[in-house]
Amino acid sequence: MKKSKLEENSTITQVTETGQKSEQETINMSDEQILAMNAYNPIVRAIATGQEFTKDITDTEVDIFASISILAKQIEDIKAGNLSCAEATLAAQADTLDLIFNSLMRKAANSKMINHFEMYMRLALKAQGQCRRTYETLAEIKNPRSMAFIKQQNIGLNQQVNNNAVPYVHEKSIKSSNELLEAQNGERLDTRAAGSTIGTDQELETVGIIDWGQNARRQNTL
């Protein structure tokens, strides 16, 4: 007996979940949830699109449940790290692109009109470029590049910019060795001569000679 549309959608949901949802969980879902899950399921959408192209290969319509089961298995293998299906797909696509390139080049060579020649050549070179990129992707999967992680340290310096500041006039701070002294007030040559005391500051008068022997005798007496 043929299944109803709702039963088919429920079965599709169970197949595409690949064990993530039990049948009981699917039963508890509403009809709208089941339809929405299938409509937005990438596997279901891929199969729905692929059904239109597989007719030209098999000359018949492929069973949707069998197709979903196979595609879901391939996706699970890729998620587990098994890329054999992806490698086979890329290798087959690269070979197909090379066939397209050679077919278009033959058509270009047999063209009698310049516009046809240019069109075939342009398409042929596009197929060639796609073929090269497909092989590059395949080589990247087979031999992934090693990632180098470089530790970088950024050191920021505090800097203040005064846009409206008055221009600074550099003053001469270091005098040359042959510059004449006493050119300005307060500059004098050091002659090493003792200066005389003045009367205005008695605390800075010249100290008399100290008798160190007499001081020592006083300390002993005490």
What is the strand and helix layout of this fold?
Elements: H1 5-16, H2 23-28, H3 31-39, H4 42-58, H5 64-79, H6 84-109, H7 114-142, H8 212-221
Helix pairs in contact: 1-3, 1-5, 4-5, 6-7
Describe the structure.
Residues 9-26 have a biased composition (Polar residues). The chain has helices at residues 5-16, 23-28, 31-39, 42-58, 64-79, 84-109, 114-142, 212-221. With 222 residues, it is mainly α. Among the domains are: 29-81, no CATH class; 83-143. Helix 6 packs antiparallel against helix 7. The termini are far apart.
Uncertain parts: none
Number of strands: 0
- Share in β-strands: under 5%
**Helical content (DSSP H or I, runs of 4+):** 55-70%
**Radius of gyration, whole Å:** 48 Å
Using the alpha-carbon principal axes, give the shape.
elongated
Work out the helix count: 8
Topology as a string of helices (H) and strands (E): HHHHHHHH
Describe the sheet with the most strands: none
Overall mean pLDDT score? 75
Backbone structural class: mainly alpha
What is the terminal separation in angstroms?
Answer: 133 Å
Region (Disordered): 1-26
Biased composition (Polar residues): 9-26
Summed up, what is this model?
By secondary structure, the chain is mainly alpha-helical. The protein contains 8 helices and no strands.
Features:
222 residues; mainly alpha; 8 helices; 56% helix
